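pipeline/complex-builder :: batch 7 item 3
reading input block
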Amino acid sequence: MAKEIERKFLVNGDDWRPGAQGIAYHQGYLAANTGITVRARVAGEQAWLTIKGPSSAGSRDEYEYPIPVADAQEMLERLCIGERIEKIRYRVPYAGHLWEIDEFSGENAPLVVAEVELDRIDEEVALPPWVGLEVTYDRRYTNGALARQPFSRWGRP
Amino acid sequence: MAKEIERKFLVNGDDWRPGAQGIAYHQGYLAANTGITVRARVAGEQAWLTIKGPSSAGSRDEYEYPIPVADAQEMLERLCIGERIEKIRYRVPYAGHLWEIDEFSGENAPLVVAEVELDRIDEEVALPPWVGLEVTYDRRYTNGALARQPFSRWGRP
Protein backbone atom coordinates (compact mmCIF):
# COMPACT_ATOMS: atom_id res chain seq x y z
CA MET A 1 0.00 0.00 0.00
CA ALA A 2 1.07 3.52 -0.73
CA LYS A 3 -0.01 6.61 1.15
CA GLU A 4 -1.36 9.49 -0.88
CA ILE A 5 -0.54 12.74 0.91
CA GLU A 6 -1.30 15.86 -1.04
CA ARG A 7 -2.46 19.45 -0.91
CA LYS A 8 -4.83 20.84 -3.51
CA PHE A 9 -5.36 24.40 -4.75
CA LEU A 10 -7.45 26.24 -7.27
CA VAL A 11 -5.41 27.63 -10.18
CA ASN A 12 -5.46 31.29 -11.16
CA GLY A 13 -4.72 32.38 -14.70
CA ASP A 14 -2.53 30.76 -17.31
CA ASP A 15 1.03 31.53 -16.24
CA TRP A 16 1.65 27.80 -15.62
CA ARG A 17 0.90 26.89 -19.26
CA PRO A 18 4.04 27.85 -21.20
CA GLY A 19 5.91 24.62 -21.96
CA ALA A 20 3.45 22.40 -20.06
CA GLN A 21 2.50 19.22 -21.91
CA GLY A 22 -0.63 17.38 -20.96
CA ILE A 23 -1.96 13.84 -21.10
CA ALA A 24 -5.66 13.11 -21.54
CA TYR A 25 -7.21 11.31 -18.57
CA HIS A 26 -10.57 9.54 -18.77
CA GLN A 27 -11.73 8.13 -15.50
CA GLY A 28 -14.78 6.97 -13.67
CA TYR A 29 -15.81 5.54 -10.33
CA LEU A 30 -17.12 2.07 -9.64
CA ALA A 31 -17.66 3.10 -6.04
CA ALA A 32 -17.35 6.42 -4.29
CA ASN A 33 -19.89 6.53 -1.52
CA THR A 34 -18.56 4.90 1.64
CA GLY A 35 -15.30 6.80 1.94
CA ILE A 36 -13.68 4.14 -0.25
CA THR A 37 -13.26 4.95 -3.91
CA VAL A 38 -12.61 2.50 -6.72
CA ARG A 39 -11.44 4.24 -9.86
CA ALA A 40 -10.84 3.08 -13.43
CA ARG A 41 -8.51 5.42 -15.31
CA VAL A 42 -7.24 5.56 -18.87
CA ALA A 43 -4.24 7.88 -19.15
CA GLY A 44 -2.86 8.06 -22.66
CA GLU A 45 -1.99 4.46 -23.64
CA GLN A 46 -2.17 3.04 -20.13
CA ALA A 47 -4.86 2.16 -17.64
CA TRP A 48 -5.12 1.57 -13.92
CA LEU A 49 -7.52 0.39 -11.30
CA THR A 50 -7.09 2.33 -8.08
CA ILE A 51 -8.51 1.79 -4.60
CA LYS A 52 -8.39 4.65 -2.13
CA GLY A 53 -9.36 4.48 1.52
CA PRO A 54 -11.07 7.20 3.52
CA SER A 55 -9.29 10.54 3.68
CA SER A 56 -7.79 11.60 6.99
CA ALA A 57 -5.73 14.76 7.48
CA GLY A 58 -4.90 15.00 3.76
CA SER A 59 -3.70 11.37 3.64
CA ARG A 60 -5.35 8.31 2.07
CA ASP A 61 -4.39 4.67 1.71
CA GLU A 62 -3.94 3.97 -1.98
CA TYR A 63 -3.54 0.79 -4.01
CA GLU A 64 -2.97 1.02 -7.74
CA TYR A 65 -2.77 -1.78 -10.31
CA PRO A 66 -2.18 -1.60 -14.06
CA ILE A 67 -5.02 -3.20 -16.04
CA PRO A 68 -5.66 -3.64 -19.76
CA VAL A 69 -6.87 -0.43 -21.43
CA ALA A 70 -9.76 -2.37 -22.99
CA ASP A 71 -10.95 -3.45 -19.53
CA ALA A 72 -10.78 0.11 -18.21
CA GLN A 73 -12.68 1.45 -21.22
CA GLU A 74 -15.41 -1.14 -20.75
CA MET A 75 -15.67 -0.27 -17.07
CA LEU A 76 -15.98 3.42 -17.95
CA GLU A 77 -18.76 2.62 -20.40
CA ARG A 78 -20.65 -0.01 -18.41
CA LEU A 79 -19.98 0.13 -14.68
CA CYS A 80 -19.31 3.67 -13.57
CA ILE A 81 -21.54 5.71 -11.32
CA GLY A 82 -22.13 9.40 -11.89
CA GLU A 83 -20.38 11.28 -14.68
CA ARG A 84 -17.12 10.37 -16.31
CA ILE A 85 -14.22 12.65 -15.40
CA GLU A 86 -12.45 14.05 -18.47
CA LYS A 87 -9.36 16.15 -17.90
CA ILE A 88 -5.92 17.01 -19.17
CA ARG A 89 -3.18 16.46 -16.62
CA TYR A 90 -0.04 18.59 -16.82
CA ARG A 91 3.05 18.08 -14.69
CA VAL A 92 4.81 21.27 -13.78
CA PRO A 93 7.94 21.36 -11.59
CA TYR A 94 8.19 24.31 -9.23
CA ALA A 95 10.84 24.97 -6.56
CA GLY A 96 11.71 21.31 -5.98
CA HIS A 97 8.18 19.90 -6.07
CA LEU A 98 6.24 18.39 -8.94
CA TRP A 99 2.81 19.93 -9.36
CA GLU A 100 -0.01 18.15 -11.16
CA ILE A 101 -2.46 20.50 -12.80
CA ASP A 102 -5.82 19.08 -13.87
CA GLU A 103 -7.77 21.03 -16.44
CA PHE A 104 -11.26 19.57 -16.53
CA SER A 105 -13.50 19.45 -19.56
CA GLY A 106 -17.09 18.30 -20.05
CA GLU A 107 -19.38 18.72 -17.06
CA ASN A 108 -16.48 19.87 -14.86
CA ALA A 109 -15.21 22.69 -17.11
CA PRO A 110 -13.82 25.28 -16.52
CA LEU A 111 -12.35 23.92 -13.28
CA VAL A 112 -8.54 23.88 -13.02
CA VAL A 113 -6.89 22.52 -9.86
CA ALA A 114 -3.28 21.92 -8.87
CA GLU A 115 -2.07 19.19 -6.54
CA VAL A 116 1.29 18.67 -4.95
CA GLU A 117 2.23 15.29 -3.53
CA LEU A 118 4.10 15.36 -0.25
CA ASP A 119 5.94 13.01 2.09
CA ARG A 120 4.21 14.59 5.09
CA ILE A 121 1.16 16.85 5.16
CA ASP A 122 3.18 19.47 7.06
CA GLU A 123 6.10 19.37 4.63
CA GLU A 124 7.27 22.83 3.65
CA VAL A 125 6.35 23.65 0.09
CA ALA A 126 6.83 26.84 -1.92
CA LEU A 127 3.53 27.85 -3.51
CA PRO A 128 3.72 28.89 -7.17
CA PRO A 129 2.25 32.32 -7.97
CA TRP A 130 -0.50 30.72 -10.06
CA VAL A 131 -2.14 28.85 -7.17
CA GLY A 132 -4.98 30.43 -5.26
CA LEU A 133 -7.46 29.13 -2.71
CA GLU A 134 -6.41 25.92 -0.98
CA VAL A 135 -9.13 23.23 -1.19
CA THR A 136 -7.29 20.27 0.38
CA TYR A 137 -10.10 19.67 2.84
CA ASP A 138 -13.01 20.63 0.61
CA ARG A 139 -14.41 17.26 -0.35
CA ARG A 140 -16.43 18.68 -3.27
CA TYR A 141 -13.16 18.88 -5.21
CA THR A 142 -12.29 15.19 -4.97
CA ASN A 143 -12.67 13.59 -8.37
CA GLY A 144 -15.09 11.08 -6.86
CA ALA A 145 -17.30 13.95 -5.71
CA LEU A 146 -16.92 15.73 -9.07
CA ALA A 147 -18.21 12.55 -10.77
CA ARG A 148 -21.38 12.67 -8.66
CA GLN A 149 -21.83 16.43 -8.60
CA PRO A 150 -19.91 18.04 -11.48
CA PHE A 151 -18.52 21.55 -11.07
CA SER A 152 -20.77 23.07 -13.75
CA ARG A 153 -23.84 22.11 -11.69
CA TRP A 154 -22.71 23.56 -8.38
CA GLY A 155 -25.07 26.06 -6.92
CA ARG A 156 -28.02 24.56 -8.75
CA PRO A 157 -30.63 22.72 -6.73
CA MET B 1 -13.80 -8.98 -19.50
CA ALA B 2 -15.14 -12.39 -18.65
CA LYS B 3 -18.77 -13.28 -18.19
CA GLU B 4 -19.70 -15.13 -15.04
CA ILE B 5 -22.67 -17.37 -15.77
CA GLU B 6 -23.60 -19.74 -13.01
CA ARG B 7 -26.38 -21.54 -11.18
CA LYS B 8 -26.36 -21.85 -7.42
CA PHE B 9 -27.95 -24.45 -5.13
CA LEU B 10 -28.16 -25.24 -1.46
CA VAL B 11 -26.30 -28.42 -0.52
CA ASN B 12 -27.97 -31.30 1.30
CA GLY B 13 -25.94 -33.67 3.48
CA ASP B 14 -22.32 -34.72 3.18
CA ASP B 15 -22.23 -37.17 0.28
CA TRP B 16 -20.08 -34.70 -1.71
CA ARG B 17 -17.30 -34.73 0.92
CA PRO B 18 -15.41 -37.98 0.35
CA GLY B 19 -12.16 -37.09 -1.43
CA ALA B 20 -12.98 -33.36 -1.70
CA GLN B 21 -10.07 -31.09 -0.81
CA GLY B 22 -10.73 -27.51 0.14
CA ILE B 23 -8.89 -24.22 0.04
CA ALA B 24 -9.50 -21.51 2.64
CA TYR B 25 -10.95 -18.31 1.19
CA HIS B 26 -10.94 -15.01 3.07
CA GLN B 27 -12.73 -12.26 1.25
CA GLY B 28 -14.38 -8.94 1.78
CA TYR B 29 -16.15 -6.23 -0.16
CA LEU B 30 -14.92 -2.71 -0.80
CA ALA B 31 -18.23 -1.98 -2.48
CA ALA B 32 -21.40 -3.99 -2.83
CA ASN B 33 -24.29 -1.59 -2.87
CA THR B 34 -24.94 -0.28 -6.38
CA GLY B 35 -25.12 -3.60 -8.22
CA ILE B 36 -21.35 -3.39 -8.70
CA THR B 37 -19.21 -5.40 -6.31
CA VAL B 38 -15.51 -4.92 -5.68
CA ARG B 39 -14.02 -7.89 -3.87
CA ALA B 40 -10.63 -8.56 -2.29
CA ARG B 41 -9.95 -12.29 -1.91
CA VAL B 42 -7.14 -14.29 -0.39
CA ALA B 43 -7.30 -17.92 -1.52
CA GLY B 44 -4.50 -20.03 -0.10
CA GLU B 45 -1.24 -18.32 -1.17
CA GLN B 46 -2.80 -16.08 -3.80
CA ALA B 47 -4.94 -12.99 -3.87
CA TRP B 48 -7.21 -11.23 -6.32
CA LEU B 49 -9.15 -8.06 -6.79
CA THR B 50 -12.41 -8.71 -8.60
CA ILE B 51 -14.97 -6.34 -10.10
CA LYS B 52 -18.42 -7.68 -10.92
CA GLY B 53 -21.15 -5.80 -12.71
CA PRO B 54 -24.88 -6.03 -12.01
CA SER B 55 -26.43 -9.47 -12.29
CA SER B 56 -28.79 -10.11 -15.18
CA ALA B 57 -30.36 -13.51 -15.92
CA GLY B 58 -27.68 -15.38 -13.96
CA SER B 59 -24.87 -13.57 -15.84
CA ARG B 60 -22.47 -10.86 -14.63
CA ASP B 61 -19.57 -8.99 -16.16
CA GLU B 62 -16.44 -9.94 -14.26
CA TYR B 63 -12.90 -8.57 -14.19
CA GLU B 64 -10.29 -10.27 -12.04
CA TYR B 65 -6.71 -9.20 -11.36
CA PRO B 66 -4.03 -10.86 -9.23
CA ILE B 67 -2.73 -8.57 -6.49
CA PRO B 68 -0.13 -9.02 -3.73
CA VAL B 69 -1.48 -11.08 -0.81
CA ALA B 70 -0.27 -8.36 1.61
CA ASP B 71 -2.40 -5.75 -0.22
CA ALA B 72 -5.48 -7.99 -0.09
CA GLN B 73 -4.97 -8.68 3.60
CA GLU B 74 -4.68 -4.97 4.34
CA MET B 75 -7.84 -4.28 2.36
CA LEU B 76 -9.68 -6.98 4.32
CA GLU B 77 -8.54 -5.45 7.58
CA ARG B 78 -8.94 -1.76 6.73
CA LEU B 79 -11.32 -1.11 3.86
CA CYS B 80 -14.06 -3.71 3.76
CA ILE B 81 -17.70 -3.06 4.47
CA GLY B 82 -19.86 -5.52 6.39
CA GLU B 83 -18.48 -8.83 7.63
CA ARG B 84 -15.59 -10.71 6.17
CA ILE B 85 -16.56 -13.88 4.29
CA GLU B 86 -14.70 -16.95 5.54
CA LYS B 87 -15.25 -20.21 3.71
CA ILE B 88 -13.65 -23.39 2.47
CA ARG B 89 -14.04 -23.92 -1.25
CA TYR B 90 -14.09 -27.45 -2.62
CA ARG B 91 -14.06 -28.34 -6.31
CA VAL B 92 -16.05 -31.45 -7.12
CA PRO B 93 -16.43 -32.77 -10.67
CA TYR B 94 -19.81 -34.29 -11.50
CA ALA B 95 -21.04 -35.56 -14.85
CA GLY B 96 -18.82 -33.33 -16.97
CA HIS B 97 -19.18 -30.14 -14.95
CA LEU B 98 -17.00 -28.76 -12.18
CA TRP B 99 -18.96 -27.83 -9.07
CA GLU B 100 -17.64 -25.38 -6.51
CA ILE B 101 -18.93 -26.05 -3.01
CA ASP B 102 -18.55 -23.26 -0.46
CA GLU B 103 -18.75 -24.24 3.19
CA PHE B 104 -19.05 -21.01 5.17
CA SER B 105 -17.74 -20.49 8.68
CA GLY B 106 -18.02 -17.58 11.10
CA GLU B 107 -21.18 -15.51 10.80
CA ASN B 108 -22.33 -17.43 7.73
CA ALA B 109 -22.09 -20.95 9.22
CA PRO B 110 -23.62 -23.47 8.68
CA LEU B 111 -24.42 -22.40 5.12
CA VAL B 112 -23.16 -24.68 2.33
CA VAL B 113 -23.84 -23.75 -1.30
CA ALA B 114 -22.81 -25.28 -4.62
CA GLU B 115 -22.22 -23.36 -7.83
CA VAL B 116 -21.74 -24.61 -11.33
CA GLU B 117 -20.24 -22.34 -13.96
CA LEU B 118 -21.83 -22.53 -17.40
CA ASP B 119 -21.25 -21.27 -20.91
CA ARG B 120 -24.94 -20.35 -21.21
CA ILE B 121 -27.53 -20.00 -18.47
CA ASP B 122 -29.73 -22.56 -20.30
CA GLU B 123 -26.92 -25.07 -20.73
CA GLU B 124 -28.00 -28.59 -19.81
CA VAL B 125 -26.42 -29.72 -16.58
CA ALA B 126 -26.89 -32.93 -14.60
CA LEU B 127 -27.68 -32.08 -10.97
CA PRO B 128 -25.76 -34.09 -8.35
CA PRO B 129 -27.92 -35.89 -5.75
CA TRP B 130 -26.52 -33.67 -2.99
CA VAL B 131 -27.91 -30.39 -4.36
CA GLY B 132 -31.27 -29.13 -3.15
CA LEU B 133 -33.10 -25.85 -3.58
CA GLU B 134 -31.88 -23.68 -6.43
CA VAL B 135 -31.04 -20.12 -5.26
CA THR B 136 -29.56 -18.68 -8.47
CA TYR B 137 -31.92 -15.72 -8.36
CA ASP B 138 -32.07 -15.28 -4.60
CA ARG B 139 -29.80 -12.30 -4.05
CA ARG B 140 -29.46 -12.97 -0.32
CA TYR B 141 -27.06 -15.78 -1.20
CA THR B 142 -24.57 -13.64 -3.11
CA ASN B 143 -21.37 -13.32 -1.11
CA GLY B 144 -21.72 -9.54 -1.22
CA ALA B 145 -25.15 -9.82 0.42
CA LEU B 146 -23.83 -12.38 2.94
CA ALA B 147 -21.15 -9.87 3.96
CA ARG B 148 -23.84 -7.28 4.74
CA GLN B 149 -26.43 -9.66 6.22
CA PRO B 150 -24.76 -12.92 7.28
CA PHE B 151 -26.73 -16.17 7.16
CA SER B 152 -26.70 -16.67 10.93
CA ARG B 153 -28.65 -13.42 11.37
CA TRP B 154 -31.39 -14.11 8.85
CA GLY B 155 -34.86 -13.98 10.28
CA ARG B 156 -33.77 -11.63 13.04
CA PRO B 157 -34.96 -8.04 12.92
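note: The helical segments of chain A are 69-78, 143-148.
queue -> next item
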